Amino acid sequence: MQERQARAGAAKRSAHLLLFARNFFRFPAMLGSVVPSSRFLVNDVLSAVDWEQARVIVEFGPGVGTMTREILRRMRRDATLVAIELNPAFVDFLDQEIDDPRLRVVNASAGEVRAVLGSLGAGRADCIISGIPYTNMPEATRQEILKESRQALSPEGALLVYQFTRTVLPYLESSFGSVRQRFQLLNIFPARIFHCTP
Ligand SMILES: C[S@@+](CC[C@H](N)C(=O)[O-])C[C@H]1O[C@@H](n2cnc3c(N)ncnc32)[C@H](O)[C@@H]1O
User: Fold this and answer.
1) Cis peptide before 189 (omega within 30 of 0)
2) Does residue 37 have its Cβ closer than 6 Å to ligand 1?
3) Which portions of the chain are predicted below pLDDT 50?
4) Which residue among 39, 135, 195, 197 has its CA within the 20 to 30 Å range from the CA of 168?
5) What is the predicted pLDDT for the residue at 28?
6) Ligand 1 centre from 6 Cα, in Å?
């Protein structure tokens, strides 16, 4: 019985990896990575969230839901997770795979975050967790997403960004009052985590 469950779990993980890799080869700049984040990176990013307080959480670029599942596991029962994903293949996948009434998956760009929150009647975000590849996007798009993110956050809120490069750092520093940095080596590739508060 346990062996069958373990085999089913491994098959599911392989299917997630395959879907992710297939989409990377179709849209390399949009994904920015050939594999989803490691559990070390997921834990490191999510350790910065105040789970007791957070009621509206936004995730940019959930992909196949690696971070999403762990956010749902940690967040309050009355909290809402709004996952904004540009790739419709991932949106369909998440709709089919994750059955949780606290999750809203929206096919949009991160730059539309305020409009998305408004349309869901969700109010401002306590936390935005961003895994999208800022290095690969045009400067105007990067600036627009960060401006919108800053305005979508509550005054006590935080933007958590994980990236493989420091390209986004000056943009974060010009939009946010405080940017703290950490480094997580146990990931393909090692990642920087930026903790930004207004
Ligand atoms: C590196 S993957 C991260 C996936 C997942 N969060 C993880 O940590 O494994 C980047 C994701 O961001 C999505 N993405 C890229 N640009 C986006 C944008 N402007 N708005 C929303 N999602 C975007 C991609 O489709 C992809 O799912």
Assistant:
1) yes
2) yes
3) none
4) 39
5) 85
6) 28
Residue 124's pLDDT is 98
Nearest to 70 by CA among 54, 51, 46: 46
CA torsion angle 174 46 141 30 (round to 10) = 150
- Here the tokens at position 27 are 């849209």
Give tens-digit pLDDT for 15-25.
Answer: 888 987 888 88
Q: What kind and span of H or E run contains 155? A: strand 153-163
- The predicted structure's pLDDT at residue 2: 79
Cβ-count burial 167-186 (b if 16+ within 10 Å, e if not): ebbebbeebbeebeeeebee
Collapse the DSSP code of 115 into the 3-class scheme (helix H, G, I; strand E, B; otherwise coil) and give the result.
helix
Q: What pLDDT is recorded for position 67? A: 97
